[in-house]
Amino acid sequence: MTDQPWLVVGLGNPGPTYAGNRHNVGHMVLDVLAGRSGSTFSAHKARAAVAEARLGVLPGGAPGPRVILAKPSTYMNTSGGPVAGLAQYFGIDPDHVVVVHDEVDIPFGDVKLKSGGGEGGHNGLRDITKALGTRDYLRVRAGVGRPPGRMDTADFVLKNFSGAEAKELPFLLDDAADAVEMVLTEGLLAAQGKFHTKA
């Protein structure tokens, strides 16, 4: 089915306490995408804030594909239920699901993309894999860097960005949003070619 929309999910934790955390970079990227497309989020029964939009421009100049933007309103570790619920509600197959999330194994500011593969200890991804019954969905991974010294990874991702990082954060969010748009309009390989070779 080629006319099915895409489901783009930004991971994070709900509420103002977590809003600025590294772990919430997925939510932040979705806010950028909604801003670009002039769409606004509203509550959906699948336990998520959802906005419908068209993203990007296709190579021939036509408007990009129809997209469901979603920020689960559950905690990160239980993101799977909302993602599977929305996929079912909108009739979207896993290969049309894009998950935007923070990644400690990538230097701060870098963006990488992949389809399938392991979850790298990311509990949000693990729960989505379980709920969808497959690992074969797309991931846009926003690098937040490794914790300093002996800081626990879980503590690190639940802290806000440092002052220096906060100045660079808009560039990371823009790059990740660009990566999402490119995946939808030109495909995963083209997006990897651009973002994996960025100096």
Automatic annotation (TrEMBL):
One of its GO terms (cellular component) is cytoplasm. It is found in: Cytoplasm. GO terms for biological process: protein quality control for misfolded or incompletely synthesized proteins; rescue of stalled ribosome. Its main location: cytoplasm. Monomer. Belongs to the PTH family. This is Peptidyl-tRNA hydrolase. It comes from Oerskovia enterophila. The lineage of its organism: Bacteria, Bacillati, Actinomycetota, Actinomycetes, Micrococcales.
